[in-house]
Specification:
This protein has about 110 residues and is mainly α. The N and C termini lie far apart (about 45 Å). The model has no long low-confidence stretch (mean pLDDT about 90).
């Protein structure tokens, strides 16, 4: 199990993003792959890690989104897990988009030489 730190969270987010990015063609819709990859990861399944995710994220989810996909009588822990999931999901998607951008700009620079 990895450390429960903000730095380790971002290392794991980038690792997930790179794995998906490298294994799939550019035109593939990544959403389902990201969802599956983080659904069972330790940042989501262990309650004590949710605070780190929510501290580290650049994509704190809108509370109405958390409530809309949670069951009506969800506990505080379940709401935090949903919030952590949504935040991590968007963090990974953002990293994949950044990797696409880097590849695109590198290719464009090579073509313009």
């Amino acid at each position: 199990m990895s450390e429960n730190t903000v730095e380790q969270y971002w290392k794991d987010v980038l690792a997930i993003a790179k794995e998906i990015f490298e294994d799939c063609p550019i035109d593939v819709e990544y959403y389902d792959l990201v969802h599956e990859s983080i659904d069972g990861c330790e940042w989501i399944i262990y309650d004590y890690r949710h605070e780190t995710v929510l501290t580290a994220t650049e994509n704190y989810p809108d509370p109405s989104d958390v409530h809309s996909i949670s069951k009506e009588d969800a506990s505080w822990e379940e709401l935090r897990q949903t919030a952590a999931f949504l935040a991590m999901e968007q963090d990974v998607l953002d990293e994949i988009n950044s990797l696409h951008y880097l590849c695109y700009t590198e290719r464009e620079e090579r073509e313009n030489r």
